[in-house]
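User: I'm putting together a teaching handout on how sequence relates to shape, and I'd like one worked example. Could you take ABC transporter ATP-binding protein from Corynebacterium hiratae, show the sequence you're using, and then write out its predicted structure as tokens right after it?

Assistant: Happy to. First the sequence, then the structure tokens directly below it.
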Amino acid sequence: MELVRILLSRSKPYTGYVIAVLLLQALSTAATLYLPSLNAKIIDRGVAQVDIDYIWRTGGIMLIVAFVQVLAAIAAIWFGSRTAMGLGRDLRSDIFRRVTRYSAEDMNNFGTATLITRGTNDVQQIQMVYMMMLNFMVTAPIMSIGGVIMAIREDAGMSWLVAVSVIVLLAAISLIIVRLMPLFRAWQGKLDVMNGTLREQIAGIRVVRAFTREEHEAERFRTANRDLTELSLKVGQLFILMFPIITVILNVATGAVLWFGGHRVDEGLVEVGSLTAFLQYLLQILAAVMMGTFMAMILPRAVICARRITDVLEHEPSITEPDQPRTPERSEGVVEFDNVSFQYAGAEAPVLHDVSFTATSGTTTALIGATGSGKTTALSLVPRLYLPTKGRVLLDGTDIAEMKRGDVVKRVGLVPQKPYLFSGTVASNLRLGAPEATDEELWNALRVAQADFVEDLDMHIAQGGTNVSGGQRQRLSIARMLVARPLVYLFDDSFSALDVLTDAAVRSGMREYTAEATTIIVAQRVSSIVDADQILVMDAGRVVARGTHEELLESSETYREIVESQKTSEVA
Ligand SMILES: Nc1ncnc2c1ncn2[C@@H]1O[C@H](COP(=O)(O)OP(=O)(O)OP(=O)(O)O)[C@@H](O)[C@H]1O
């Protein structure tokens, strides 16, 4: 079972701590078990025979035992917490490390939201169960078995009372738990729905406002929220029921012990002190039973979480490092697509079919075509975000599948369609690919990328770059790539948020960077690519025409249509 595997394998670094917890808990429980029998002695010998000296002495021992019990319990919890928290930290960092090795395809398959939940909430569940296990694992068995032995030693004649109380308590708690479990499972589902709704609404708040859908969305959220609340109330009601029921059982058990015990004291079968001790042992046994049932209640959830975490940790990234990596002998940045086809995992048909072209250094290759024709997909094969399902992508003559990821990334820079900025400053974002870049280099890249809104390199950038506009984000991410100075520059529709004049200014400024490099541009606007050395016209995943702007105007009907459609829209 995954939970056992996770706990056993990951406890290894904390073996010393785990042993300490177990020993300390054993000590603390033994002390707890010892106390009632000392109490019995004080009553039966000290009080009954008015032996003040004996009362003092045994009372002193009780004090020391109680002190040891408290100290051992505190220390056990301290070691237990450190172990459980340490295990949680290790798990989280392993999940993080594994996820950073995932390819784009793996990320698509899992989904960001669930990976976050698994790395936070699920780990927390495991931590909690582990912490309880460490503390109950020793306490509950010792307390229940030891309690039974000690109780029988005090008065064997009433042991049937222990059996009856345990059975009644178990039956009552089980009845409640059986009704709670499905509610718990449903609750997890409802929580997911509410989180999902909330996430979607916050992320899409602008669209909601733009289409004045606030009322509709509020209603959707209200429903999700109400479902969760109703279920939580049901869970709460059962929980509330649990406490009075347990209290009643404990009190009835106490009453029964006093009733039957009282008669036995009358008959001289047992002494008062032993009766008191018996009562305390009975309560301890019932407490141990409650611990056990509580564990049984939270265990299934942890089992599910462990399974979800194991799925992440054992998922082999779909793109792995080659066993014998090859490094290209040249460093020119020549990109070659050799009969490349590509199909997304789970998709019904390929989105690229037999794409072949070569982009050499010092030249610009442009991809143009209808929405969904596969331009972005083709571009994302260059930095090895995906591997082709057929054919090869070569970088300086070497298949990128055979290169180390680091070697590919060093040579290739991509400005994605939706650029992402990290929380920090302009400088920290620009230095992402070149940590040693000087301020001067940053300013130069900003100037070329027309990011003239930046007045200070320490300007704050919010998570995701949400405190700058879409166009500004694009300029910053262009600057970020310029700073890294790769051999291959990939622009995925990176100029779309720029106006025509800025677009032209950026492209002409970039020549000082890209003169020797290979540039591949995906563009919607023909004006962005008229100067390109070769233009590939894509349609439904195929390259249907290639050539310069002039050549294509002559030869390609599709290209002419694209040019015409843009002229019409410009006039309009
Ligand atoms: N992660 C994915 N999983 C499955 N199919 C995908 C995925 N991403 C894109 N596709 C599909 O692949 C096809 C090509 O998409 P791609 O993004 O490469 O097109 P594009 O030419 O760049 O479009 P646009 O100009 O709109 O950016 C589309 O039909 C799209 O539905």
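A couple of points you could highlight for students: Residues 108, 344, 347, 351, 369, 371-377, 417 surround adenosine-5'-triphosphate (CB under 6 Å). DSSP finds 18 helices and twelve strands in the chain.
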